[in-house]
Amino acid sequence: MFEQNIPLKQISHYKIGGQARYFFEAKNLEDLSKAVEKARALNIPIVVIGGTTNVLFDDSGFEGLVIRPNFRLIESDGNSVRVGAGAPMSELLNFVLDKKLSGLEWAAGIPGTLGGAVRGNAGAFGGEMKNVIESVVSLDISQTNSKIIKRSGLESLFDYRSSIFKRTPGKEIIFEATLKLEKGNQNKIEEEMNKNINYRLVNHPLEYPSLGSTFKNVPRESIKTNIENMPIKKDPFEVVPAAYFIAEAGLRGVSSGGAMISPKHPNFIVNVLEATSEDVKNLIKLVKNEIKKKFGVELEEEIEYLKSYPQPRY
């Protein structure tokens, strides 16, 4: 049923990682349930991935089952759009543009899948997933008998780059979500999407593999030092970009092994020469230490880590 000994760097958006003991791509809810049951029988841990655009796989690999849901359904009923967790964000954006639905323009250019965007409450240009979520359907695998749970957007407890699903890792697997959008002018929707995509092309180091923003932006209210000369932006509340602190600390272009803090956008750590997870972690540690020392600010990772676990994570 499962593929065995799959190199994670072949799956990884970052092109980093050792071997996964087992790998399975679930095409429907029945596939997913059977995979969970099989993993239980083997007494192995489970992790679920989407587009892997925000997760750092470990060089040591993963001694368990990596599941990738491939639920790519996208359908609309009026202003509501039902989307499978495995649907790429790019396909979703093309769909809503074709249907003349507004509310996701801010997401244009965001990589990965719908499930990952919901789990991490993805956001950009002042927008967030929580603003368009009507409901989320997940499979609770924390008990012997898995069960389906449907939550409203409010019940999903969205927070800055987080949700109930992210705060309880290993408990639930997002299956699909329903988005509530608004009818809009197709030309204006497309214009806004293109503007956001072009911004990324110009300002982000897309020529190298990366996990996007390594660190979360810093809420303005949490900064104790003088912020008079610091840039403030809405994200969606007032924050100081993590990239500002990294640049001011003189860390642009600093490298460790095959990983480098991007000179183009210092909140990106790019894989320029067959980087390892240790290379990336060394740079993360360096950045956090330098920013803490220079500004008294503790940066928090936006990326997630996936490493080998000795016990099942149900």
UniProtKB/TrEMBL annotation:
PROSITE patterns xref list: FAD_PCMH
Enzyme kind, highest EC tier: oxidoreductase
Signal peptide residue numbers: none
Residue ranges occupied by any FAD-binding PCMH-type domain in the UniProt entry: 15-184
Keywords carried by this UniProt record: Cell cycle, Cell division, Cell shape, Cell wall biogenesis/degradation, Cytoplasm, FAD, Flavoprotein, NADP, Oxidoreductase, Peptidoglycan synthesis
GO cellular component assignments: cytosol
Record: active site: 161, 213 (proton donor), 302
UniProt cross-references to Pfam families, sorted A to Z: FAD_binding_4, MurB_C
GO molecular function, one term: UDP-N-acetylmuramate dehydrogenase activity
Gene3D superfamilies per UniProt: 3.30.465.10, UDP-N-acetylenolpyruvoylglucosamine reductase, C-terminal domain, Uridine Diphospho-n-acetylenolpyruvylglucosamine Reductase, domain 2
Reactions performed catalytically: UDP-N-acetyl-alpha-D-muramate + NADP(+) = UDP-N-acetyl-3-O-(1-carboxyvinyl)-alpha-D-glucosamine + NADPH + H(+)
Recorded superkingdom: Bacteria
EC identifiers of the protein: 1.3.1.98
TM region(s), chain numbering: none
UniProt-listed InterPro entries: FAD-bd_PCMH, FAD-bd_PCMH-like_sf, FAD-bd_PCMH_sub1, FAD-bd_PCMH_sub2, MurB, MurB_C, MurB_C_sf, Oxid_FAD_bind_N
Compartments in which it is found: Cytoplasm
PANTHER family: UDP-N-ACETYLENOLPYRUVOYLGLUCOSAMINE REDUCTASE
Family affiliation: Belongs to the MurB family.
Function in brief: Cell wall formation.
UniProt protein name: UDP-N-acetylenolpyruvoylglucosamine reductase
The species this protein was found in: Candidatus Curtissbacteria bacterium GW2011_GWA1_40_24
Gene that produces this protein: murB
